[in-house]
Structures are given as structure tokens and as C-alpha cells.
Amino acid sequence: MRIVGTPEESLLAKMSSEEAQNYIRAQPKMEKKNFKDVFKGASSDAINLLERMLELDADKRPTATEALAHPYLAQYADPTDEPTAEPYDESFEEKELSVEKWKSLVYEEVQEFKSRLVKDDVS
Prior knowledge:
Number of strands: 0
Shape: flat
Number of helices: 6
Distance between the termini: 45 Å
Strand content: under 5%
């Protein structure tokens, strides 16, 4: 928030965690910094992409596909050779689970990921 500023009340209202809302409201109000001053020497395309990607409101942030199509990344992007993925599912973040259950779920996710890696290496 030191760089992007304190979120507007409309963004806080989107947050499901009352604790997160209260924490942010308890912080001193911070104004958004001028990215040209913070990232001196960066090109205007780099500044534009940074401002868009560091947007606190996820609904306003570019998707990975949009970010890869940004002029700053044009020299690296190849639309015919870009992997695709399902949109990030953040619904789990609202679940009220014990620490032990969270640990178990993270462990299961890591194991599943590792098994997919092994399958990909074999094929």
C-alpha cells in the first residue's frame, strides 16, 4: 500500500474478511505514488504494465493473457505458443478451517502436483 495507496472503501467492501478490512482501515491513509518516480528509468510501457498488474482490485487487474499481450512484453510474447490455464479459483480462501485441515489440504495439493510432474516426465 506504500506504493499503490490505501484501497477505496468499495474495494474493502469486496473483502470477505472483516479482520482484513479492519486491519487496512487501522493503517494510516497512504496516497498512491507516482510510478514514474518510484521506478525511475523504467519505460512508459513498463510503468503502465506495473500499474495495471499492481492494481489491488483483482477484478481490474489484467489476466495473464492480457499481460502477455501488453506492448512491454511484445518481444517475448508468441500468441501461437502461449500455455493456457483455467482461471484461478479463490473460493477456498473463504473457508473457515482449522490450521491442521489447512496443512492437510496444502500437503495433498503438493502431492498431487508432484504426481502430475512425474506423469509429465514419463510421457
